[in-house]
Amino acid sequence: MDKNKGYVTFILHAHLPFIHHPESEDYLEEQWLFEAMSETYIPLLLNFKKLEDEGVKFRLTMTMTPPLLYMLDNKLLQERYIKYLKKHIELAEKEVKRTVYDERLNSLSKYYLDRYSNDLHVFKDIYDCNLINGFKHFQDAGFLEIITCGATHGYFPILYVNPQAVKAQIAVGVQTYKKFFGRQPRGIWLPECGYVPEADKFLKEFGIEYAIVESHGILYADPTPVYGTFAPIVSPDGLIAFGRDIESSKQVWSSIIGYPGDFNYREYYRDIGYDLDYDYIKPYIASNGARVHTGIKYYRITSKNGEKDYYNPRWAMDTAEKQAGHFLDCRTAQIENLSRFMDVPPIVVCPYDAELYGHWWYEGPYWLYILFKKIYYDECNFTLVTPGDYIDRHPNIQVSTPCRSSWGAKGYSEVWLNQTNDYVHRHLHKAADRMIELANLYPDEDNDLRKKALNQCARELLLAQSSDWLFIITNGTMVDYAKKRIKQHIGRFTKLYYQIKKDSIDEKFVDDIYSQDLIFKDIDYRIYK
To answer: Is the pLDDT of residue 1 over 60?
Structure first.
């Protein structure tokens, strides 16, 4: 078959909330970054490298959000990651000795010792502690198209009550992207895929060509799109919207029929941090003594309930290879079917959280590697592209306004606005109003201290607006931490607001909170004018 009947685009959304605590090493939440680095970002880079070395051409789109970029670039967090790896290597060495009584278990503990030792080698020796340069290499080499996101993943469908708040999220998102990648981003992952038409003009103002939206954002667009989610649409303001494909998403995401639930895959929830003797594992869990994941997991899913069998990496790889073949066959059949009814080549849009690949679905990065090889070598009727590639090839796009939408439960805003977290929004809106008031009161501030305080206000507001805090409160995980962060940023913002208005700025306070909230170094508060 020739490769011209349609296209498939993979989009991986790499995002974590900004977590930086120079004042203490006891914050468990810092591990979110380290786990993602070991289980998602490094495995993705290693698999991209294998494809490149093997001469396999592939195209993939990734978001790297501003908070993630600033954390990956942070010297303190880089040092702490090395410390994290050394601790895990020490634990794996102990495990190799402890499990000598059981050959299968012992080979698994050696496997983890190799994994963590290799992570340290890759991080320090290959990437010189900077994973951003790894991803930048693949963008510059033509394999990746990296796109941007809102500055702190602020949720547009609620923030747009104050249009300048949305404008600032977009402006700082684009500015951060340019700082790290040295070019203009073409696309944006709307935070939580939250689409509102009011944001289009700002997206266009800052040079964004396209956005990723949830399926029903396209299906209920006005007028109804002729090709559903299988071709992009363009809003009257000129923003091109690509909608998520339901069928391919379900094959990966679904907890019931999705690939990651296969019984041969590694069981995420069985971890030696919970299983082993407390005194033995204590040095490797949370500083407060709470049992947490160590990343060393010896079991496969085996069955939905009942006894778990040991993980077998070879079986898992075989399964990933079969499933990659299944996914390829399904997309080939889907494209074949669609192309008979469309007079433009269909595009199947496959957007996922990057952390699904490796962190939650341990075998995910290997599955991608096999899939991209199969697409390159096997006969199939589609081409892997990025949304930018598609626009370049097929610039004639139907004009239609996507409907207000998001992903998450029920597909609108319920995850980010419900009885558990609704109290937060009035504080976010009030702070945004006050930020605009300050920007207009001091339109061109030349006093260094006041300017520093105004810029810090903008930082605190953006950090408070992170949709992650609202999501965490809804889901009931680490709720105290999420509430603390909202309170902290709104508190710092409010204190600075009154100090600026009274002309009594405490410089030490500004410097202290800047050293903690070390993000957006080049921010200019005047974006809120």
So the answer is: no
Q: Which of 364, 382, 408 is the last residue of a domain?
A: 408
Give the Cα separation of 246 and 298 in Å (integer): 33
- Inside any domain, residue 454: yes
Section 125-135 average pLDDT: 97
The per-residue pLDDT for range 381-403, each reduced to its tens digit, is 999 999 999 999 999 999 999 99
- Same domain as 471, residue 332: no
CA 114 from chain centre, in angstroms, equals 27
* Contact status, residue 235 vs residue 246, Cβ threshold 8 Å: no
Do residues 516 and 444 share a domain? yes
| Strand segments (E) across 124-253 | 144-149, 187-189, 210-213, 233-234, 240-243
Distance, in Å, from the CA atom of 258 to the CA atom of 250, rounded to the nearest integer, reads 6
Check residue 256 and give its pLDDT. Answer: 78
Cis peptide before 197 (omega within 30 of 0): no
d(CA 236, CA 183) in angstroms, rounded, equals 26
Residue 3 pLDDT level (bands cut at 50, 70, 90): low
pLDDT in tens, 96-115: 999 999 999 999 999 999 99
Examine the pLDDT at 253 and tell me if it is beyond 90.
no
pTM confidence score: 0.97
Q: What is the mean pLDDT of residues 246-255?
A: 87
Radius of gyration of the chain, Cα coordinates, nearest whole angstrom: 24
Check whether residue 147 and residue 192 sit in a common domain. yes
Classify residue 458 by burial, with Cβ atoms within 10 Å: 0-12, 13-18, 19+: buried
Q: Which of 384, 408, 432 is the last residue of a domain?
A: 408
259 and 322 fall within a common domain: yes
Between the CA atoms of 503, 509, 515 and 516, what dihedral angle is there, to the nearest 10 degrees? -110
The total number of structural domains that make up the chain: 2
Q: Is 143 helix (H, G, I), strand (E, B) or coil?
A: coil
CATH, residue 513: 1.20.1430.10
| Pair 402, 421 in one domain | no
DSSP labels, 322-390: HHHHHHHHHHHHHHHHHHTT-SS--EEEEEEEGGGBTTTBTTHHHHHHHHHHHHHHS--SEEE--HHHH
CB 520 within 8 A of CB 176: yes
What is the spatial distance between Cα 292 and Cα 271, in angstroms, rounded to a whole number?
A: 8
Q: Are residues 376 and 437 in the same domain?
A: no
In DSSP terms, which residues pair with 210 in a beta bridge? 187, 240
Beta strand 240-243 pairing with 233-234: antiparallel
Q: What are phi and psi of 346, to 5 degrees?
A: -70, 150
Q: Is 95 a member of any domain?
A: no
Crossing angle of helices 75-98 and 103-121, in 10° steps, is 160
| pLDDT of 153 above 80 | yes
Q: Are residues 331 and 476 in the same domain?
A: no
Q: Give the number of C-alpha atoms closer than 13 A to the C-alpha of residue 203, restricted to the C-beta side.
A: 31
Please give the residue range of the domain that contains residue 218: 1-16+55-71+133-266+312-408
